[in-house]
Amino acid sequence: MHEPVLSIRGLTKTYRGGTRALDNVDLDIRKGEIFALLGPNGAGKTTLIGAVCGLVRPTGGTIAAFGHDLARDWRAARARIGLVPQELSTDMFETVRRAVTYSQGLFGKRHDPARIEEILRGLSLWDKRDTQIRALSGGMKRRVLIAKALAHEPELLFLDEPTAGVDVELRKGMWDQIAALKERGVTIILTTHYIEEAEEMADRVGIIRGGRILMVDEKHAMMERLGTTEAVIDLSEPLAALPPAIAAFPVELAGEGMRLVYRGGSGAGGGAAEVARLTQALTRTGIAYTSLDIHDSSLEDIFVGLLGAQEVSA
C-alpha cells in the first residue's frame, strides 16, 4: 500500500476554557481520492482542516503531509496544500485576476498567465477577470476562493463548505471542476452540508462528532453495511389492525390505516426481496393496495441515523 498523502495521529485541540474541538483524531488520506468529512456544526471539521493548513496550533498529536512532519517541516508540505476556506476572506478591492495571480506567486510559483486563464475559464470567471471582487455575487466570490487555492497547483486540496450559498446550477459546474481535479491526480478533502454531493462525488466518507472520528469507510461499503430499505404501500381499504401474516414483517400502519410502512433489510437493496414477500402476503390475505414506493437509504439517511436528526440540523 502506498504511503498516505496525509497521516494524522492522536490529534487534539483544546481551547482556553477547556473546550476540546479535536479529541485524539487518527486519519489517513490516500493519494488521488475525494474524502468527504461529514458532521454537525461544531463537530471539529474546520478545526481539523485548520490544523493541517497551519491556521490552528494543535494541543497534541502529529500531522504528516507528503512524508513531512508539519511541526518540523511545515513550509515544504504547505506549498503542496491548497485551502478553500468557509469564510469569504480576501481583498474585496482587488480584481479577480490580480488576486489569483498573487496567490500563484505566494508559494514561489513563476508567473503563468496561461494557467491563470485556464483556472478562471474553468470556473466561469474569465469574463469577470478585471472586476473587483466586492462587485461579485456570493457564488462568484466563492469561486474566486477556489481559483486562488488552485493557483499554485496544490496536490492536496481542502474544500471547507465550498458550495455554501451557491445556486444549484453553479454548484454543478463547481463539482465538474472538482471531478476534473481528481482526474489530474489532486487529492481532495471536503466538508459539505449538501450530503447528496458527498454521496455523488466521494470515494470515502468520515463522520465526525464532538471532535472524534466516529467512522471512516468506503462510501459504497458504508451504504451496503448500514443502509436499509423503506417501502410505502397505499392500501385500497383502511386496516384497523395488522393480520398476523402481515405483522410478521417489520411494518407499521400509518395514515389512519390506509398505509403500510416497511423498514428493514440489511445493506443497500437488502430489503427488496422481503418487500416482494410482503406484497405476496398481502395478496394471499386479500388486502388490496393501490401503490408501492420503495427506496434504499441515501448517505444522508445513514448520516442522520447515526447522529440523530436534531443534532444534524443544529
UniProtKB/TrEMBL annotation:
Q: Which PANTHER family match?
A: ABC TRANSPORTER ATP-BINDING PROTEIN
- Name the chain's protein: ABC transporter, ATP-binding protein
One Pfam family name is: ABC_tran
- By its UniProt entry, which SUPFAM superfamilies does this protein fall under? P-loop containing nucleoside triphosphate hydrolases
Q: Which GO terms describe its molecular function?
A: ATP binding; ATP hydrolysis activity
List keywords of the entry alphabetically: ATP-binding, Nucleotide-binding, Transport
Instruction: Identify the residues that the record assigns to the ABC transporter domain, covering every copy.
Output: 6-235
Q: Which InterPro entries match?
A: AAA+_ATPase, ABC_transporter-like_ATP-bd, ABC_transporter-like_CS, ABC_transporter_ATP-binding, P-loop_NTPase
Report the source organism. Erythrobacter dokdonensis DSW-74
